[in-house]
Design a protein that fits this description.
The complex is a heterotrimer of chains A (about 550), B (about 200) and C (about 375). Chain A is mostly helical. Helix content of chain A is about 65%, strand content about 0%. The two termini of chain A are about 25 Å apart. With about 200 residues, chain B is α+β, with helices and mostly antiparallel strands. Chain B has two domains: about 5-45; about 50-185, Ctag/Cox11 (Pfam 04442) (Sandwich), CATH 2.60.370.10. Chain B has helices at about 5-45, 180-185, and strands at about 70-75, 85, 90-95, 100-110, 115-125, 130-135, 140-145, 150-160, 170-175. The longest helix of chain B has about 45 residues, at about 5-45. The radius of gyration of chain B is 25 Å and the shape is elongated. In chain C, the strands form two sheets. Chain C has a five-stranded mixed sheet. The relative contact order of chain C is 0.09. The chains are: A mainly alpha (about 550), B alpha+beta (about 200), C alpha+beta (about 375).
């Protein structure tokens, strides 16, 4: 391992330490573009995933800006309703499948092997393949924007028959690209499971793994379980559109409501796929900056597992007004409410970890704390939405939009940013610029709340979601939301600036970049050399 | 590095991948199986107001004279089909357990033959499992020549175990054109009586 | 001091806003809506209380245990009793929430005898109401003129929440609402009535309402249903039963009058005037006010040669719609006079100038059921 230590790392190198390693170590593989195309190294693939996700975050964000600009005031000013619907749909699809999921996979690629002391992912070539499916899938999805009839315009939930009989011709491409993204996720999940179950450092038991690894293991199982259902449902759509079947078409004996059952059977676990790794990240960051062991490690693991299991029993809470019988309404209301118990346990554990710690507030900690507060607010609105009678009023309004943006933006996205700030020193060998990171954090927090908090009021006052124009009573809320949205969008440019500056230089980070950090990744040098843990490290379980 | 150690890992990875793939295939099959499962589930529980798609025997039971239920019939036709489906009986009151016959008329107002089917839906959905249809035009496609008219009966019964709180049952028929080759179906038997 | 001023001003501004605009779920005008509102408020305050405790503990820890204040980390990391307590207590709170929620839900699923049955059909992008057993049916279209949407004229008070024909319902009576759809899934929602139910094509759903106070209640379609999802409002006018009865009688009379008009010969100008109105409310949202459409989904009508060459094809398409497309069948939505008028208009407007007048009698033959 000593031979891989950086030899006078030059700060100006793009991939910093990692890049120069290839040239003077045993592999001298292809260079330039081909190197990235053919790489099987988990760190390089992790970087590719993260960069891809960042690009998608900005493209999806741009669509959100179009939506917010149109909604800035009542009336149609900038875009027509057809295009508006394409924007909301593409925003949702890109953010869910292109930004949040690949970001977590990227983090898993980088950090899971480092945290369990593995030399690489278990299936490196498969890893390369699963990444390169994504750019193909999303290029195709984005290309639908210029196709005749426009891009998909039926919302990210693509309810039939709006997405089958009444869909634009580009829907076929949308289905194909979702298939590719789904295959990519499945292959990524297989790889992560194989890595975690087999490549742990000798002596590391399951209950010794850092929580990020645990949550990702559970997430990977969720992916294996529900991605085939998504593949099934979009294949049925394809058959309905092109081959005259009637899965979702009442005319031929099908049922549009079946679509919703199938979609949400995938969709609700999917929601947890986007939040469980975030729980893991926060559970790793908070103890580091509280300089205190995570409170209730075992209950964190059990809580994560119970959330995952419960996620298969709650899908119809998205369908309370579709005409379910009373017993179904009651069952799904109770099961949904039950989810707040393990989620509550997590929040209590985080807070107790902070209690009597020794806290400092570096950028990763700021984002992790904002996650705890704002995710909990999203949890409260989630609990309200679970109350089925009240959901008859909340359903399909901006209250729902506020809820899921609270759990996804200051939830999943903040956790990803916390992770990036936390591990940037490990990736680049430099600390991110402190002042700029703090500015990024505070602008993001203000922007996020300005954007999404007024949505609660707009929704309660009766504003339906997915409308390009609204009546005058919602005007004030929407103007504030739009201003907040622009602020949040612009402040993400700061994030890019921080990352770029950090790659190019900055205060040098030691191997253990954060004082309270104790997982295995902090035993390798910063920046992490291209090859780490080729000899398994000695692991002594001391943390949990 | 220890060769045995590496070999052990490799075997472990292979085993995990194999198991995961099995799980994946099982979930794939499950996803496909959800469609027939859903249909069975709907038929058993009446979820979504679906009714049986085959003729059922009338259950031999005496009428429950203590209560009367209103049965409503609504007919609709979908776009692209120049047909009218009508019934003289918009509404009738009957005792649970009692059977009744209602006549429906199909009329092709277009200038070419069409094949269509009347798709039933029942509200409240709890009532749909208690609606037994002895004869219904909704079990099969109908083919009508241009301008043709055709009368078909619905013979049905609301079973005695219909929940007490259900006072009105609405049966909606929506006519949908069926995209089938006309020649193949031209020989099709007229439904109406027992099938 | 400046801080106090700012906070004061902001909160004063906010509170006046609270009064001016609606910030919360409406209490509504039915027993169910009242119950849902109070349920909503109960759950909200429980969440606030939990939030105060949780965030209180969080922020206390954040301020109290800062290293800059010399805090030293202690080493505890488990406490089984505590962990059991914070699993069980939330469970109890949930049970307390579930009890009133279940009671309210059961009331909402009441299927007792209704005084009036109304069938609501969603159609891209309008609602159709038919009063079962009363022979009264009509469509309800957005009444806000296009110019207001495009910002060419000032927006009216009920911008996007006004229709040409509201659904009129009697107060104090139980009205059963049956919902279905002709094309995609819509959702009929009036916040003040706390009724939101999906209208699913080919299936029928039901809900019910008993309105306590006369008034006009506005809502919208709540399920994304395509391009003009934002432009299909719901307006319910609740009136006293006697007024309702006389309104019903009036509607029947008007329908009878309209039927009389079918048999007479109509002049081209007469049909054009009528057709222009129908076109503007029904057709213009897809085929555009200038008849240019927006291909490929919505073909142009101006200069459409297939349509102009073959009047029968034109008539058939309007009457029966095109299956599997956004073109609905207008057979049951419009009467013979309206159909004849709008077809005549389409054949003569925007330079189409065929000079043909399609007579209502010709249409009546094609739509009249036996």
């Amino acid at each position: 391992m000593a031979s891989h230590l950086p030899t006078g790392s030059s700060a100006s190198q793009q991939q910093s330490g990692a890049a120069e390693m290839t040239s003077d170590t045993h592999h001298s593989g292809p260079t330039g573009l081909m190197r990235w195309l053919l790489t099987t190294n988990h760190k390089e693939i992790g970087t590719l995933y993260l960069l891809f996700s960042l690009a998608m975050f900005f493209i999806g964000g741009l669509f959100a800006m179009v939506v917010r600009a149109e909604l800035f005031q009542p009336g149609l000013q900038l875009v027509q309703p057809e295009f508006f619907n394409q924007m909301t749909t593409m925003h949702g699809l890109i953010m869910v499948f292109g930004a949040v999921m690949p970001a977590f996979v990227g983090l898993a690629n980088w950090m899971v092997p480092l945290q369990i002391g593995a030399p690489d992912m278990a299936l490196p070539r498969l890893n390369n393949f699963s990444f390169w499916l994504l750019p193909v899938a999303f290029t195709m999805l984005l290309a639908t924007l210029v196709m005749p009839g426009g891009a998909p315009n039926f919302g990210w939930t693509f309810y039939a028959p709006l997405s089958t009989t009444y869909a634009p011709p580009s829907t076929t491409f949308f289905i194909f690209s979702l298939h590719l993204a789904g295959i990519s996720s499945i292959l990524g999940a297989i790889n992560i499971i194989a890595t975690i179950l087999n490549l742990r450092a000798p002596g590391m038991r399951m209950m010794d793994m850092p929580l990020f690894v645990w949550t990702w293991l559970i997430t990977a199982f969720l992916l294996i379980a529900v991605m085939p259902v998504l593949a099934g449902v979009i294949t049925m759509m394809l058959l309905d559109i092109h081959f005259g079947t009637s899965f979702f078409n009442a005319a031929g004996g099908g049922d549009p409501v079946l679509f919703q059952h199938l979609f949400w059977f995938f969709g609700h676990p999917e929601v947890y796929i986007m939040i469980l790794p975030a729980f893991g990240i926060v559970s790793v960051i908070i103890p580091t900056f509280a300089r205190k062991r995570l409170f209730g490690y075992a209950s964190m693991v059990y809580a994560t597992a119970s959330i995952a299991i419960l996620s298969f029993l709650v899908w119809a809470h998205h369908m309370f007004v579709v005409g379910l019988p009373l017993t179904a309404e009651l069952f799904f209301m109770y099961s949904t409410m039950l989810i707040s118990v393990p989620t509550g346990v997590k929040v209590f554990n985080w807070i107790t970890t902070l209690f009597r710690g020794s806290l400092t507030f570096e950028p990763p900690m700021l984002f992790a704390l904002a996650f705890v507060v704002l995710f909990t607010i999203g949890g409260f609105s989630g609990l309200m939405l679970a109350i089925s009678p009240a959901d008859f009023q909340y359903h399909d309004t901006y209250f729902v939009v506020a809820h899921f943006h609270y759990v996804l933006v200051p939830g999943a996205v903040f956790a990803i940013m916390a992770a990036v700030y936390y591990w940037l020193p490990k990736w680049t060998g430099h600390y991110p610029h402190l002042r700029l990171s703090q500015w990024h954090f505070w602008l993001s927090v203000v922007g996020v709340n300005l954007t999404f908090f007024p949505m609660h009021f707009a929704g309660l006052a009766g504003m339906p979601r997915r409308i390009p124009d609204y009546s005058l009573q919602f005007a004030d809320f929407n103007m504030i939301t739009s201003i907040g949205g622009f602020l949040f969008g612009l402040s993400q440019l700061l994030f890019v600036l921080v990352v770029v500056l950090c790659v190019r230089g900055g205060r040098k980070a030691p191997a253990q970049a954060w004082e309270g950090a104790e997982d295995l990744e902090w035993t390798v040098p910063s920046p992490a050399p291209l090859h780490t843990f080729e000899t398994p490290p000695d692991f002594t379980p001391y943390r949990h | 590095m220890d060769r045995q150690f590496l070999e052990g890992r490799r075997r472990g990875v292979r085993r995990t991948v194999a198991r995961t793939l099995v799980a994946l295939v099982l979930m794939g099959c499950f996803a496909i199986a959800l469609v027939p499962l859903y249909d069975v589930f709907c038929e058993v529980t009446g979820l979504n107001g679906k009714t049986a798609s085959r003729a059922q025997a009338l259950s031999a039971q005496s009428a429950d004279q203590t209560r009367l239920v209103t049965m409503q019939f609504i007919t609709r036709s979908s776009s692209g089909l120049p047909w009218a489906l009508t019934t003289e009986t918009r509404q009738l009151r009957l005792h649970p357990g009692q059977s009744a016959e209602v006549s429906f008329t199909f009329h092709n107002l277009g200038n070419r033959p069409y094949v269509a089917r009347a798709v039933p839906s029942v509200s409240p959905s709890e009532a749909s499992v208690h609606l037994r249809k002895l004869a219904c035009f909704c079990f099969e496609n109908q083919r009508l020549a241009a301008g043709e008219r055709f009368e078909a009966p619905l013979v049905f019964q609301l079973t005695r175990d219909l929940p007490e709180d259900v006072k009105t049952v609405t049966l909606v028929y929506t006519l949908y054109e069926q995209q089938v080759s006309l020649s193949r179906h031209s020989a099709m038997q007229r439904p109406g009586g027992e099938t | 001091m400046r801080l106090v001023w700012t906070v004061g001003l902001v909160s004063a501004g906010l509170s006046s806003k609270v009064l001016a605009n609606q910030w919360n779920m409406p209490v509504g005008v039915t027993d169910v809506s009242r119950e849902i509102h109070s349920l909503h408020m109960i759950i909200f305050w429980i969440c606030v209380a939990i939030g105060v405790v949780v965030f209180g503990a969080l922020f206390y820890s954040l301020f109290r245990y800062r290293r800059s204040r010399g805090a030293r980390a202690s080493n505890f990391h488990e406490h089984t009793t505590l962990e059991i307590v914070w699993t069980v207590v939330p469970l109890l709170i949930l049970v307390a929430m579930a009890i009133p929620a279940t009671a309210t839900l059961k009331k909402m699923y009441d299927t007792s005898e209704a005084d009036l049955d109304v069938m609501i059909t969603g159609q891209q992008w309008r609602w159709r109401y038919s009063y079962l057993g009363e022979e009264v049916a009509f469509t309800s279209n957005l009444a806000t003129p296009r110019s207001q949407v495009e910002g060419k004229s000032a927006k009216s008070e009920n911008y996007l929440l006004e229709v040409d024909e509201p659904l009129v319902l009697p107060v104090g009576q139980k009205v059963r609402l049956l919902m279905t759809s002709d094309d995609v899934i819509h959702s009929w929602w009036v916040p003040d009535l706390a009724v939101k139910q999906d209208a699913v094509p080919g299936f029928v759903n039901e809900n019910w309402v008993r309105i306590n106070e006369p008034g006009i209640y506005r809502g919208q379609c709540a399920e994304l249903c395509g391009k003009d999802h934002a432009f299909m409002p719901v307006v319910v006018k609740a009136v006293e039963p006697p007024e309702f009865e006389s309104w019903l009688a009036q509607r029947k009379e008007a329908a009878a009058q309209a039927a009389l008009g079918v048999d007479r010969e109509w002049a081209l100008e007469e049909l054009m005037t009528r057709g222009e109105q129908v076109y503007a409310t029904i057709c213009a949202s897809c085929h555009m006010p200038d008849g240019q459409g927006s291909p490929p989904a919505f073909p142009a009508l101006a200069g459409n040669q297939t349509m102009l060459d073959d009047a029968d094809y034109h008539i058939e398409t309007v009457i029966n719609g095109v299956s599997g497309s956004a073109m609905p069948a207008f057979r049951s939505t419009l009467n013979a006079v309206e159909l004849a008028a709008v077809i005549t208009y389409e054949r003569n407007a925007w330079g189409n100038d065929t000079g043909e007048a399609i007579q209502p009698a010709r249409i009546a033959e094609l739509i009249d059921s036996p």
